Amino acid sequence: MENAVVIVMGDRILEVGVRGEIEIPEILPVVEVSGKWIVPGLIDAHIHYFQSGGLYTRPDVIDLRGWRPYETEMARIEADLGETFRRYLASGVTSVVDVGGGYWNFGVRDKANEQLYAPRTAVAGPLVSTVSRPQMDIGDPPIIEVDSPVMARELVRKQLEYDPDLIKIWFIVPRDGNFTPNLPIIEATIDEAHAAGVRVAVHATQLEAARASVKAGADVLVHSVDDEAVDEEFVSLVRESGAIYTSTLIVMEGYGEVLGGNVRMTNVEREIGDPDVVMTWSEVPMGDDAEEIRTRSRARLERTMAVMQKNLKAMQDGGAIIAAGTDAGNIGTLHGPALHREFELMAEAGLTPREILVDATRNAALVFAAEPEMGTIAKGKFADFLILDADPLADIANLQKIHRVVKGGVALDPANILAPSPETVVQRQVEAYNARDIEAFLSFYADDVVVRRLPSGEVAWDSKEAMRPRYAKRFAENPELFCTITTRIVHGDWVVDHELVTGVIDRPRVRAVATYEVKDGLIQNVWFLPVHD
């Protein structure tokens, strides 16, 4: 709607209409956002809080417990939950569906739903699994193997005590492809959950397993089919059943790139993703089987991505309900910004920006709840929406251009939701340098920053204000000044840049190595080492 008005009272939307045709209560303040676009808050319909996205988070996939104990990995994940929540909000994701974790997951849901700076969270408990994953059992396993319908029903009943939003089945097909012996387990799980009024989400990535799951009553298929092309009968089955088909394209890319040794990150992933998680991606073992791991991972990605994208397009065109989801937390799939890469892959599959937007809002909300209170901007719904600087229907990438995140009626500046990563801080000060904007440049430095020259260690400046005269003079006298980063290394709070500066009068090329230490979103220490030709 053009000239739209959204009236918010408390945490709910009171009314939606067009300026001049809707009465605005006089007691409410008016926030003018002319020239902006308003869309519902984004929803990631498939994540896992119990996984970090780092290399050590799935010892059943690549077992590195000798390098980092799984207990250490889980302790870090729990300690960083607050930051993880904020990464979602900073990405414009106001709701998520955690499709399975240990019983601790229910406590995570409570913690998230009590906070402003966290996405609304729906959860499933431990996965009802057809296989065992003992590597992740340290007392509260996220995956529990069941070997009979009776055991499946018992596990469902135990989870019902925690009021789950979904029951999740991990339907892993044996190598011989014969999953028929496991069907009674799938059917019993669904029957027991449905009898209690709880919906069931099923991990079934093979076409025939997915088909059998929907016939058994699955409410959500949490992945795209990746082994063969979906047929018309399957598309009709999913559409007519009302089952929801979740995209999760990026998770395959994440594994393929990290284990394949070929990581490519988007700008939003660099800005919002957890740098400590990203750092682990370069730690893939380089032993005798390293090349085999890389080759196998790259081949799987190449083989499955095309199938998944083709199937997603067929399901979308066939009228099935598609929900955007990432499977964030798996190796290579970052909590928060991964959803924007998912959108890019969905667009590559042939989906339009409008289709993707609906899949990531209205449809994804249907995974969160059968009768969701979010996902559309409508009377009575939660006031969860984004104010954008550009039209997302012109380019889905415009969903990254967030002016404000509104959560429960509270408008949040995305720049204040999450402290920027050290790399982002350093890069932005480089951009301000190149713009010769002294105020913007100095804004990225702590008041008491210390800048040293190497190798002597001599202190060049001991405060931000001490830097001002030198850089103001340089910016004024060198209109062609430009710094190019030829190499960059990021390690936690540290950023090391190999710089090439051009446009300095009488010095056409200046090279240096700059090492930055970033704390709380500001550059605290700098070491400059000139590089002589």
UniProtKB/TrEMBL annotation:
<feature type="domain" description="SnoaL-like">
    <location>
        <begin position="426"/>
        <end position="524"/>
    </location>
</feature>
<dbReference type="InterPro" id="IPR011059">
    <property type="entry name" value="Metal-dep_hydrolase_composite"/>
</dbReference>
<feature type="domain" description="Amidohydrolase-related">
    <location>
        <begin position="37"/>
        <end position="410"/>
    </location>
</feature>
<dbReference type="InterPro" id="IPR006680">
    <property type="entry name" value="Amidohydro-rel"/>
</dbReference>
<dbReference type="Pfam" id="PF01979">
    <property type="entry name" value="Amidohydro_1"/>
</dbReference>
<dbReference type="InterPro" id="IPR051781">
    <property type="entry name" value="Metallo-dep_Hydrolase"/>
</dbReference>
<dbReference type="InterPro" id="IPR032466">
    <property type="entry name" value="Metal_Hydrolase"/>
</dbReference>
<dbReference type="Pfam" id="PF12680">
    <property type="entry name" value="SnoaL_2"/>
</dbReference>
<dbReference type="InterPro" id="IPR037401">
    <property type="entry name" value="SnoaL-like"/>
</dbReference>
<dbReference type="GO" id="GO:0016810">
    <property type="term" value="F:hydrolase activity, acting on carbon-nitrogen (but not peptide) bonds"/>
</dbReference>
<protein>
    <submittedName>
        <fullName>Amidohydrolase family protein</fullName>
    </submittedName>
</protein>
<dbReference type="InterPro" id="IPR032710">
    <property type="entry name" value="NTF2-like_dom_sf"/>
</dbReference>
